[in-house]
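# nightly structure sweep
# worker-07 picked up a monomer target from the shared queue
# config: single-sequence mode, recycle default, output format = structure tokens
# input follows
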Amino acid sequence: MAMPWIKPLLIISLCCLGGCALFVQPQIPTGGLNTNSPEEHPAYSGDGRYLAFSSDRLGRRDIFLYDLQTRQLIPLPNLNRRDSSQDQPALSADGRYLAYVSTERGRSDILVYDRQRERSQLLTANLRGSVRHPTISGDGSQVAFQTNQLGQWNLAIVEVNP
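# output follows
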């Protein structure tokens, strides 16, 4: 006698015995993390302490850094600009370096912000075409991103100068 329902029931039972939940209620934290504006492109630091994201909360696209331990926004001096947008953040493992997309030069560029030095380094000065979706290595020494310089979306990797 075939029982086609037994296999799905067994899988569900094993999953529940292992301590996993089938339905998880997401947390929406308070304390400066969320506003009435869109909060987008969340990125954790590798150590799990920081969460970077982009938001229109000040009337333009800016990047914000939230400390999950202290539940406070961390200032990012010299990163956001009034005349351009900063978007798509990516964090190094310890949160010191932040790779992002900026329109500061009138087109999309990839930059890396150093929180200790409070300044950004332009990585795509000689690149033609658009760029998007940066990611940064754990130690902050390399940034990978998409570029359409050759007519289609390809991946590029750039060494970051200290």
